[in-house]
Automatic annotation (TrEMBL):
It comes from the Eukaryota. This is Splicing factor. It comes from Coemansia helicoidea.
């Protein structure tokens, strides 16, 4: 039986059977005693913390809430500290995702004249093809120095063309399509604004 199935069975059967545990036992989830277990939040998302392997027993929580030990054992402070850390981690993830989208958007803005660059690349390619023909004609006419001068000029144009093509292709693929991504301000996941509402809610 997997840990998750065991935990689920334990939660379902908790009302019917006495586990014989005390809320102070080390294998009892103290976060569950205070309020809720953070591991049960954001399941099946990038912020999923994985299953909690500690005991979640509502009867133990009720016993703790009614006991004189409440707020004296430090469980609330530890719970608060853990929530603060998780909140900080999620905020950092959201900031990183926003920075990534902003950086990629800026990279896209660096290349605003893509069509002009592609047109220039076509012109350069055509000039190079004409120069190849010119070199062949000069070679047949035994004009070696002139052919070599045209060849060197053609090689420079080829270098320019390669550099231009790299600049054209350097645009981030995420921004080549029309869909602009947004960031979930809760968990930092990337969202497509026009996506189905069920998917966005998930």
């Amino acid at each position: 039986m997997t840990d998750m199935a065991r935990q689920l069975l334990q939660e379902l059967m908790g009302e019917l059977q006495d586990t014989g545990k005390k809320y102070t036992d080390p294998d009892v989830c103290k976060d569950h005693l205070v309020d809720f277990c953070p591991n049960q939040q954001f399941t099946n998302t990038k912020a999923d913390l994985g299953p909690c392997n500690l005991v979640h027993d509502d009867r133990l929580r009720d016993a703790y809430q009614k006991s004189a030990d409440r707020r004296r054992l430090g469980y609330e402070d530890a719970f608060y500290d853990r929530l603060q850390q998780l909140t900080h981690d999620l905020q950092r993830r959201v900031r990183r995702a926003l920075d990534r989208i902003t950086a990629e958007a800026d990279e896209h803005l660096v290349n605003p004249h893509k069509e002009e660059k592609e047109e220039r690349a076509v012109i350069l390619d055509e000039r190079i093809r004409l120069m190849v023909g010119q070199i062949e004609e000069l070679g047949e006419a035994a004009e070696v120095e002139e052919a070599y001068a045209v060849f060197r000029h053609m090689e420079r144009l080829r270098g320019d063309l390669d550099a231009l093509r790299q600049r054209i292709d350097s645009v981030t693929p995420m921004f080549k399509n029309e869909k602009r991504l947004e960031v979930c301000d809760v968990c930092g996941a990337f969202l497509v604004p026009n996506d189905a509402s069920k998917r966005l809610d998930a």
